[in-house]
Design brief:
Length: about 350
């Protein structure tokens, strides 16, 4: 690994931090950035119309540290705040940070070292650790375990249609690669998931990591919990848009597995898009039933099709195991012939 004493003078890191009404936590965020072992950074804090004391807290830090730049959002919301930060950045590497989270001391150093080692065309990643002043819900624990499991193997994109595989505060890329991915210009929410798909689309490679670099705070008013831009329907629309753009092979028959809430939503998106599909399930009460003008068939109807792609919307783990076993016998490949959406 390159001598970190020499790295500081070569590569600058731009840390982009939108913030709004996080005065309870932003001091800890600032403190964790200032105390980074890697010193060649700039932190661009963009105030998204805060009504608490967040702006004043950042202003005081900015007055005493020229590497902390305080800006006002040119528009409204996280995406325009990120655009504002990016337009004012001057780093060779770009990363994000949430104003209510905490960096471990060597986070930036660790990610810069990985990018210098592997070069452009790669994404530096790290493990996350959720923390909360209240009891952490099982859903967050499961997401942390799932996400860290992927990152520890560098296989994040293998399950990109399930959930966001590269969360906003846990990536760093060459600025040139972010430009190839169209940086923060798209106005599509959820913005971190959209960017992950764009990284995938341009072929960036994930650098595996087994180090916890980011402490992710959970609390009731966090945007990911309360903002309608992060509702389930937004995620499904995004997934389907990118599936049809990146992964769908129009020369193959498309099969949708499952007729629950998610299956119905995906079916409605396909119908609206004019994409024909076979709809299958293993629920006796639904087999033969017509939904949205499509009659559901028994799951093994798929055997009659010679060449197909499958979207699986079934969350039950036993069912997933059975489906994977079935596809293995059919010599089908995940992320080419079949895609799990949950």
């Amino acid at each position: 690994m390159e001598d970190l004493q020499n790295i500081d003078s070569k590569k600058k890191v731009s840390i982009l931090i939108p913030f709004k009404n996080t005065d309870m936590f932003i001091f800890e965020c600032l403190d964790s950035i200032i105390n980074q072992s890697y010193k060649n950074w700039e932190a661009l804090f963009v105030d998204d119309h805060s009504t608490d004391s967040s702006f004043e807290i950042v202003r005081k830090f900015s007055n005493s540290n020229p590497k902390i730049k305080l800006l006002k959002n040119k528009g409204n919301g996280i995406i325009e705040a990120l655009q504002t930060a990016y337009e004012n950045s001057s780093g060779d590497f770009i990363t994000r940070m949430d104003s209510d989270d905490i960096m471990v001391k060597d986070k930036v150093q660790f990610m810069v070292s990985d990018l210098l080692k592997f070069g452009s065309g790669h994404i530096a990643l790290g493990l996350v650790k959720y923390f909360s002043n209240t009891e952490l819900k099982d859903g967050y624990k499961k997401y942390e375990k799932w996400l860290n499991g992927l990152t520890s193997k560098g296989l994040n994109f293998n399950e990109i249609y399930k959930e966001c595989v590269i969360p906003s505060p846990c990536w760093m890329v060459y600025k040139s690669d972010l430009e190839k991915a169209n940086n923060f210009k798209p106005d599509t929410y959820p913005e971190d998931y959209d960017l992950a798909f764009r990284f995938y689309e341009i072929g960036l490679k994930c650098i595996r990591s087994t180090k916890i670099i980011h402490k992710w705070r959970d609390y009731p008013s966090r945007s990911s919990r309360t903002d309608p831009n992060y509702a389930d329907n937004s995620f499904l629309n995004l997934k389907m848009n990118y599936f049809l753009k990146i992964s769908y092979d129009e020369n193959k028959k498309l099969v949708v597995w499952g007729a629950g809430t998610k299956g119905k939503k995906i079916a409605s998106i396909l119908i609206k898009n004019g994409t024909k599909f076979l709809w299958i399930c293993n629920n006796p009460k639904k087999i033969g039933k017509e939904i949205y003008g499509n009659k559901l068939k028994k799951w093994d109807s798929i055997i009659e099709i010679s060449d197909y792609q499958s979207i699986i919307t079934i969350a039950n783990n036993n069912a997933k195991t059975f489906i994977k076993s079935f596809f293995k016998k059919q010599n089908k490949t995940e992320m080419l012939d079949y895609f799990f959406f949950c």
